[in-house]
């Protein structure tokens, strides 16, 4: 097990609004931790020795680190935008590498085959050319100019539309999707995937959304997103190898995999190797 630079990153460890004084026991990168409300509107996280870990409460979740983060938790400006509904989707445990969970979220080509008649449908299977870059000023991976036809792009959508997408990898296990907002075409819906590494091949996934949708019941919004991710889980848990390969020669990428290639290159550059496979076996 090689934790590497990922030790000093921020990770989600629970939904803040669901914490009580008794808290919850969980683990982070193999280390047992306890997460609880602190009674003062914040949260407290301790490890198995009683050491208090750094804490942030943001985007509906409690975040912590086993190390000493070199930078503040990434910003999502839409989280402060008036009129949005913030959706804590819950948690899904997945028997896969936390890095695999992020990479799958970045994959566009699987929409028609895994999320049939929701996020994609045959014969609309071609992935159009799009732009991918590692933005050096913010040290993030971005994919822009992404388009895909979707029968039901969001719970608020009333029919099929060609959806505009932007993908952003803000941290090794945190990725943010900006997509067409059907009720407000001038805005973006924000859908995130916050991943808690439990072990190198096991993770808890905490989706969170910031939407413009005044009509859909909260339960329906949560159910819609959970349905999407549960469709992904069976794929993730059957991927081989279980860890994410970082050696370029281990898998053959296609044009649809440009974001994945950039993500893997970025991980390798920063020694973000927890949950990764470095050489062919």
From TrEMBL:
SUPFAM superfamilies: Bet v1-like (SSF55961). It holds the Pfam family VanA_C. Residues 94-269 form the Vanillate O-demethylase oxygenase-like C-terminal catalytic domain. Keywords: Dioxygenase, Oxidoreductase. GO terms for molecular function: dioxygenase activity. Transmembrane segments: none annotated. This is Aromatic ring-hydroxylating dioxygenase subunit alpha.
């Amino acid at each position: 097990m090689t934790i590497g630079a990922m030790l000093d990153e921020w990770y989600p460890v629970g939904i803040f609004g669901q914490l009580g004084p008794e808290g919850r026991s969980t683990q982070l990168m193999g280390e047992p931790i306890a997460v609880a409300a602190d009674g003062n509107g914040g949260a407290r996280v301790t490890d198995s020795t009683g050491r208090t870990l750094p804490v942030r409460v943001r985007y509906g979740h409690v975040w912590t680190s086993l190390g000493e983060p070199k930078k503040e938790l990434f910003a999502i400006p839409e989280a402060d935008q008036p009129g949005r509904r913030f959706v804590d989707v819950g948690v899904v445990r997945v028997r896969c590498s936390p890095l695999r969970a992020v990479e799958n979220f970045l994959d566009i080509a699987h929409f028609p085959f895994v999320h049939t008649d929701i996020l994609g449908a045959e014969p609309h299977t071609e992935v159009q050319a799009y732009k991918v870059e590692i933005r050096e000023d913010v040290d993030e991976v971005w994919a822009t100019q992404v388009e895909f036809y979707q029968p039901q792009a969001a719970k608020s959508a009333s029919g099929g539309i060609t959806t505009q997408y932007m993908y952003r990898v803000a941290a090794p296990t945190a990725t943010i999707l900006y997509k067409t907002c059907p009720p407000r075409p001038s805005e973006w819906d924000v859908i995130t995937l916050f991943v808690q590494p439990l072990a190198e091949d096991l993770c808890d996934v905490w989706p969170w959304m910031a939407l413009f949708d005044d009509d859909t019941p909260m339960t329906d919004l949560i159910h819609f997103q959970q349905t999407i991710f549960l469709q992904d889980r069976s794929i993730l848990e059957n991927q081989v190898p279980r860890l994410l390969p970082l050696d370029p020669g281990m898998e053959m990428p296609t044009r649809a995999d440009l974001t994945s290639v950039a993500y893997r290159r970025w991980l390798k550059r920063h020694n973000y190797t927890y949950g990764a496979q470095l050489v062919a076996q």
